[in-house]
Design goal:
Strand content: under 5%
Number of helices: 5
Distance between the termini: 90 Å
Shape: elongated
Helix content: over 70%
Radius of gyration: 32 Å
Order of helices and strands: HHHHH
Largest sheet: none
Number of strands: 0
Structural class: mainly alpha
Length: 128
Amino acid sequence: MKQFPHPGEAFACSIAFDLRLRLDELGGAMGTFLIKVIVLTLLSGSLGGCAAALVGGLIYKSTKSNEEKASFVTNLQKTNLEREKAHLKPLDWCSEAYKFDKGWATENPECGQRVAACEAGDKTALAQ
């Protein structure tokens, strides 16, 4: 008889052997189906945490983006106030927004038209 170094090892080996025999008795299709169910069950528990982290990361990214946009608008307002005090022309929102985030700038319909014109070759479209 084989000697097992750990007390439960003989029991674990016999269970694995019994399961293998039982799966062989079930036939190919049923055995394959059971294996898939077992694997998916095991993976669902371990991958559940990954989904939660992914959703949390997307929410964080969205929040960070909104904070950055708010900061951009506040800084642009402060800069334009200082320029006005110095009797300078204020910076154009669309031009500055395009430099900050092209996608966000094009969400504004008027600004979107100007961005499209600039990308089509009109160098004066964003230079206002």
